[in-house]
Amino acid sequence: MKEKSVIMKRILLVFLLLVKAFPALYASQDQDQDVFVPITKYIQNGDAERLSAWFAPNLEIDILGNAIVCSKQQAKQIMKEFFNEYSPKNFSVAYKSGKAPMKYAIGTLNAGGSKFRVTLFVKTQKDGNFIQQLRIEKE
């Protein structure tokens, strides 16, 4: 009887350790992907101001085949002009991958009566996550 009690206590202990460890692992995976949640919202809303907060100090931006490396401020202006010309209706991320320090997402943007493929490369640094490259291509 005592032996059975010891075995049950050990099983319970292992179970509790697994239950405690599993959510931590799961939360870690979610946290890795969370960077795209606000970025998605700002693209869908056409909010170049808030989107630019995620820009690296210098980044590559490729809008409809016009690729340049520019400053955060220049990229913000380019995105404002794009959103003015193509008012976003809907944006959804279809695919996310990678892990720190480089993650990427590919999504579809419906804007101004057209459909676009948006590719985002985000670099994780000590001081935060920053968009290193943003590409918008007409589908």
Describe the structure.
- The chain is α+β, with helices and mostly antiparallel strands.
- Helix content is 44%, strand content 43%.
- The chain folds into two domains: 33 residues; 103 residues, Roll (Nuclear Transport Factor 2, Chain: A), CATH 3.10.450.50.
- Strands 2-1-6-5-4-3 form a six-stranded mixed beta sheet, covered by helices on one side.
- Strand 5 and strand 6 form a beta hairpin.
- About 9% of the residues have low confidence.
Class computed from helices, strands and strand pairing: alpha+beta
Largest sheet: 6 strands, mixed
Tell me the series of helices and strands, N- to C-terminal.
HHHEEHEEEE
Radius of gyration from the alpha-carbon trace, in angstroms = 21 Å
In summary, what is this structure?
The chain has helices at residues 2-33, 36-45, 48-52, 72-85; strands at residues 55-63, 66-71, 88-99, 102-111, 114-125, 128-138. It is of the alpha+beta class and 139 residues long. It has a six-stranded mixed β-sheet with strand order 2-1-6-5-4-3, covered by helices on one side.
